[in-house]
Structure formats: structure tokens, C-alpha cells
């Protein structure tokens, strides 16, 4: 018998995972700690999600200084997001599908990998809550005990417990988002976009481009509970979201408005505060292509926003949170599907799905400026990437 | 205020379950709470609370859903309307009102005692009006008076707008007519929470009915005899039963597994004027089985219901019948529940072919090692009559208006260990029956709408059908009803709050 979907068994599993994660903190860095370390490039792996007519797959690459080497591939339906576990040799994939076993629901997958060879093993595949279709983004708690899913099509958030072996438990938290906005072409219903665990993972921030809403959730035995929320100005379509190190500021790309907002965040009270700044992105960026990706350097000095074939670099004021433009870069890029930091302090990775390749953008350490682009791997229609360093 | 039942409450473990004990299939599928609502206002407040908390609501009136649509709602809340059962007070001068939580048996009693009218709804006494009516509402008087939704004048329904606000609407032919039409047959759990069905007019309750039946022993059955009996039955429904003077005849043929020892054909009849003065229709019907042997019975549906009435025997010509007061006859029919079960359905526009009858015989005589097959059967109910008024196709969401028979494949059992074998038997039976050479390969294993079949009944949902990409056409036809319902869904439930495995997918 269980007294809720958070059964005692799940609770103990979660507790065990937490305890394990606490131990791992001492022997293995968390994701954020990973990001802060500078590692040699020779001991790393990349896991790239790609979707094409020739088959959707997850590909593993061994990363060398100048080139990635393909080491393994596994089929995976419409992978849209990849996140690495902070302490285990596994990662998680969102499958942007609208049906699984004849029901309207997407799925997520857990993969294990051999850190030496990069060989992949499917650990688990879990269905999302009913009507939770087309998930697009995943976030993993810093302790590595929970995986959160932003379900674009179904207008919901799901949270899954992560077991000691890296596999997933049954969905343990479900939040059905409801709302709409004035932009009928994109806002007839809620469309959860991005999730981000802030601080120690107590707060889960979520943007919703369909309902013009940014929420702060927390996980409890009762499930996924909304602690607070901010309704943005109507029609902004808040999408990509990043919490600044220190958790005082939150940056959000407004996808329907082609703008960038900065909000104050109170990590103790788990509340999003006032909008500190709002800056138009469209000038010189993207030429009307409204597919944005955003990433931040490890120290929180610079923000990079991709849109189409262009990237803008913004300086972040760590005291006030305000942003100012530093660079607008347009190189030999077709269209950026995703932008992320390489994790080794060397620069950025850009997934160019128009030219079927992964590109590394070298940045100047002192200024953060993009100085050159280099193709690292050929990947048909890359969508998402995660980097592992041992 | 609604009554909130959570896991700390002693009622929780009962109320979280379905009457079909297969659901929830696992503990993690179960809801976290149940909100019991006694008024429409309760329901509105509870629904708003559920929405605001980001929780998924599922709706229950009587709890007879065959599939897991209500109780498979991990962490969600059941909005239980079984206490929302206000009696039938007329509104606006002449309307009859039926609350969704009212059980059909009580509906018949109330309508009869207060007004002398009835609804042509189902024979299962404890079925809740909410799910039954919005899926069409069909029963023993349907050949005489049509479906219950054919009489429906308005619906009170709670919808949730794009911003998450609960709105109470009264929809009818002039106000939100698209939603009103959708509520007339598309099935429950799709668009909102119905808190009342309103009728301007209802048919008078019959003064009396006669029950009769024939029992055929499996001991004396052969394949050829079985085929003869079954095709005689279907042949009557395909021909003579189309005459309006027969519309008061409702028949149920329980094609039980051979281990149940008897096949039971039963009927209820009254003349269109609500009397039983002229029983020539009944005699004509029974006469066609004279050459088939069998022993006459004078009770309604003995295979399904054990009720037996000995008083008032009437023996016109050759067959015993029981003349009964309408209300007594209706109230004595009971329902099922509290057991594991699987159901499938189909509508038939033509009599059984010999091949189909042979296929049915094969599966009803098939033994499954270790399984008691007595509670496995195919119920073949008469259909048509007043239901088949073509004009109602466009007015309602009940589109099956050409059928002569409605088939329900049923299996009941007690223990989870038998699930696999039971389900396999039903599935094999169904797939085999619809693998006839007359079935297009594209639509094999289904009664896809066409010359012979008219799909499945949404009130007898079967998630096995989800394996077919064309499952919406099985339940809603291929003449544009499903796209219409999808548009209604987008308009009135833009955030897809009300959903289940077979809900309309926008």
C-alpha cells in the first residue's frame, strides 16, 4: 500500500540517491563543479543527439584536440535534449515524440556509457504522464537524484527519480501547466520550454513560452509544487533560461519578442523578482530566424545567444545583473540548433543542423570574444549535446 | 464544499479504484485524492482548485468505465460526481433535469414517479447518468424512442478556458451549439465536467412490457444448428425488425461459452402506445426459432441477470411470457461490477454471415486450459428502429444510425493471475471474427465502418483499438465527425485538461 505516488519505497530510493549523491560530492564533482574545472581535452566524450531521415540516433564521440572521433551510436526516437548525470556514467535523453505504445505521450531514456571506450547501453526508457507529448528539455538536479522534463506539447512538467544504477523510477511529480498568450500562432496553450535547478537544487525554475510565465517549483513528498510564479508581459514567449552563478539573477530569452530579460531571483525565498533589464536581440542577430539557444561561461561573465547563423555575446554585470552587448558574430555557420560551453574553458560548441556538423568556437579568455570556428565532427542534423570529462 | 478524500482517509483505498478491478493496474497509477461533489458549485470550486494546483482531473459519475480512463491518473484527482444527484426538478417551466451522479435505476424511478416519463437508457441499474448519456445512452427502449441524447435539450457543463478559469456554461442548440452537439454522444472526459442534462420533452413510460426468452442447451448444439439460430436472429433484425410496429421489441442474445450450458435469448416488448395489447410482434419473433428447439423462458436476460419473476405468466399461442409493470421490469435489472473484466464492441449493419457464425461458434466452444469460461460471452443486442433516423447524425455525436445489432464481447473473472488468458481469449475472438475475407486487409481485426459494420461504441471503450492508427474512425466514423470534435476540443479545452487514453486528441 502506498499513501501517494511518492511511496515510501520511492522516498527511500530518493533518500538513498541523495545520500549517495552526498558521498559523490566528495569524490566526484557535480555538474556545476564539472563545469568549473578545466580539464584536458584528451579524456573526454561527447554525446550528440541527431534527427534525420536516415535515422534518429545518439552518437558518442571521443574528443581529441582537433577532431572528434565517432565511437558508438544507438538508435533513439527524435532525441531533443541530452543531460549528463553529475556523478554517474550515464546520461538522459528526451524523445520529442507524440506517441508511445499507442498512447499520447513522449518518452525519456537513460543511457549508460563506458568512460574508456564510449560504448553506449540503453538503461531504461520511461513514458511521460499521459498527454505529455513532445518533451524538449531536461534538467538534472545537482545531487543527481531527480530528472525534470519540460513537456512542450503536453503543457506539463514531469520529474522522475533517478535510481542508484542510473535508471529511472516511475514519474514522481507531475504538474499540468495551463495558460495561453496573445500570440495565437504560438500561445494557444501552455508550452513549457526550459527547466533549471537553482542553487543546491531546492528550486526548479521553469519558463513557459505559451503562457508567458516563469515559475519556481520545488519537489516535495506531495509531488511537484509551484512555489511562485511571474507572469511576463503578454506575448514575450519566455524560452531559454539560465540562472547566474550565485543564483541572484535569471536570464531569459523571450522567443516571441526577440529580446533578453534579466530578473532578480531570491534563492532563499525561491521567488523571482522584478525584471531588471530588457534588451532587444533582433538587431543584427538571426535575421528573423526565431530559434534561440543561450549559454553562459562558467564564471558568469558572458552570455552567448545564438539565433540562426549569428551569435551575440553579452557582458554580465555580476553586481547588478544587467547585460551589455560586446560582440555580434556571424561566421561560417548555417543555423544553430544549440549552443553550449565546451566545459574546458576553450570556448563554445555550436550544433549546425543546416550544415550537419558540430563546430567549436574558440573564444579569447580575457574578453570572451569569439575568434574562430572549427568543425569538430560531421553529424547529420545535430540537435543536442552533452560533454563528459573523466 | 466538496469532500476531499486523501490517502490518509479510510475511504481512499476504495474510492481510488474502478469498479473494474483491473484498474488502476499499479499503485503508482492511482490518484492522490478524490473530490466528492454534491452540487455544481462544489464541482466548479473543486475543479478550479485542481487546475490551480497543476493537478490533472479525471471525472467520475457512476464509475462504470470499462477502461482505466478515470482511475489511471498518477498523482491526480478524481472529481467524483456520484453525490451530485439532485432529483429531477423541472427548470424553466417544462424541463427535466438529470444530474450526472444519478444512477440510471434512480433516474427511471424518479422520472416515472414524478412525471410518468422515462429515458431510453441502459439496463444496468447502477450506471451513472453522466458517462452513460454523454456517450449516447442506449437501452431497452432505444428502438422505440431512440438514444437518450436524441432527446437532450441542453447541458450544463464546466469548461476551463485558455487562462485556466473554470466557466459554467449552459449549452444547447443556440448557445455553443458545437459543444452541445459534442456532448450528445462523443463520450465522457473530453471537454469538461457535465453537471446537468436537461430535457424539454421525454417519452412517456410504457404502462407495461412483456418479457420472454428462449434458452438453447449447449448439450444439444451443433455447429450447423448454432449457425442456423444465430443467422435467424440476425435475419429477423435485418428485415422484419425494421418495421415501425416492431420498434418496441428489444432483444438480447447472450451467446455464452459452452461451459455456461445454455445460450439465452431474451426480449422485452411493448407496443408503440406503451401497452402489450397486441403481442403479434413477439410471437412472430419467437416463431422463427420454433424449428430450432430450445426451451422457453419468461424472464429478461437470464444469462446476465438472475432475477426471475413467476407471477403474471401469459401464454399467447405457444410461448410463455411474463407481463410486468414497466417500472418493476426496469428496476429488477441490475448491474455488474467489483470484478475484473474486459469488453469489446461492434455495430453490425447486416446479419451474420455463415462464416461469422461459424467463427463465433468456434470461440464459444474453445477450451482454455485452467480457465473457467462460463463468464465469457458475446452479447448481441438488437439495434436500429428509432435510433436509425439519419437526420440525427448531424445533430448529435452519435453517428451509428444504420446498424441492426450491437455486439459486446465480455469476459469476467476474479483473479489477476487469469488476466493474460482472459484477455487473450477476447482478443483472439475479436480479431478472428473481423478477419473475414469480407474485411479489408487495411482494416483487418476491426469492424471499420463500411457495408457490413459501423465501428465501435464509445461507451464500450477498448484500448486495444488504439493499436490501429484509425481508431478514431472506429468510434466516430469517417464522415467528418472526428475533425469536428477535434475543433470543439481545441476551442473549449485548449490546454487539454480533460484527457484519457481514448479522449479526442486535438
TrEMBL record, chain A:
PROSITE patterns: TAT (PS51318). It comes from the Bacteria. The keyword Isomerase applies. One of its GO terms (molecular function) is isomerase activity. Keywords: Carbohydrate metabolism, Glucose metabolism, Isomerase. One of its GO terms (biological process) is glucose metabolic process. Belongs to the cycloisomerase 2 family. PANTHER family: 6-PHOSPHOGLUCONOLACTONASE, 6-PHOSPHOGLUCONOLACTONASE-RELATED. This is 6-phosphogluconolactonase (Cycloisomerase 2 family). It comes from Acidipila rosea.
Automatic annotation (TrEMBL), chain B:
It comes from the Bacteria. Pfam families: BBE, FAD_binding_4. Keywords: FAD, Flavoprotein, Oxidoreductase. Coiled coil: none annotated. GO terms for molecular function: FAD binding; oxidoreductase activity. Its cofactor is FAD. Residues 24-204 form the FAD-binding PCMH-type domain. Belongs to the oxygen-dependent FAD-linked oxidoreductase family. This is FAD/FMN-containing dehydrogenase.
